[in-house]
Amino acid sequence: MAAALELVDADGLLGLTMDALALRAGASKATLYRRWPDRHALAIALVQTLTSGDTEVPDTGSVREDLAVALHTLDVTLQGPLGALLVGIAAEARRTSELRDPLDRALAREHARIRDVLERGVRRGEVPRGTDLDLVATSATSSCVERAMRGSTPLTRADARALADRWYRHVAGAPVSG
Predict the structure, then answer these.
(1) Could you give the C-alpha distances from 172 to 1, 18, 44, 75, 109, in angstroms and in order?
(2) Could you tell me if 106 and 113 are in contact, meaning their C-beta atoms sit under 8 angstroms apart?
(3) What is the pLDDT of residues 67-110, one digit of tens each?
(4) 33 falls in which pLDDT band (50, 70, 90)?
(5) Do the Cβ atoms of 75 and 160 come closer than 8 Å?
(6) By three-state DSSP, how is residue 132 classified?
(7) Are 112 and 136 in contact (CB under 8 A)?
(8) CB–CB of 104/51 below 8 Å?
């Protein structure tokens, strides 16, 4: 898997070929094909590996700070192999239905992380009841996905905090400046 991640990180999904993986991993193509019938199966296994970790954003006691942590973590994650993989899968998922479910699950996981932060904010009174949390979570997640698609540099913690502050002010109904 490490060799496959290196290929994806360097060249995206297009660089993930069984020939390239066999060469990088020092394994035969037959060995690879016994484990994964094709590169799509390998890509799906990689997505599952990369998204199998902890999904909870630490509760700092502030929706602004929690949102900053969530956005920074998501953005940095999407600037790495997972982002390269998801961008490639998204392009191929239009033609290959087997790739849609892993893509949807990965994005839904990130959406849920942001939504959880906002729900905590509602419970603490920091986010108004009646706020469309799904719309906000989708918009915040999508902004990080878009950055990954453009190959932007990862957000710094300060950038993530500023972005989270803008989202929060928008959600809380306060005027957004700058």
Answers:
(1) 43, 50, 38, 23, 24
(2) no
(3) 999 999 888 888 888 888 888 888 888 888 888 888 888 889 98
(4) very high
(5) yes
(6) coil
(7) no
(8) no
Report the share of the chain in percent with pLDDT over 70: 96
> Would you give the distance in Å from CA 24 to the centre of its chain?
26
**Per-residue pLDDT, 173:** 67
Q: Which two tokens stand for residue 83?
A: 């982002």
Q: How many helices (H) and strands (E) does the chain have?
A: 9, 0
Amino acid at 17: T
Q: Is 172 exposed, middle or buried (0-12, 13-18, 19+ CB in 10 A)?
A: middle
Start-to-end Cα distance in the chain = 44
* DSSP structural state of residue 57: P
More confident residue, 115 or 47: 115
Q: What is the Cα gyration radius of the chain?
A: 18
Q: How many CB atoms lie within 10 A of CB 66?
A: 24
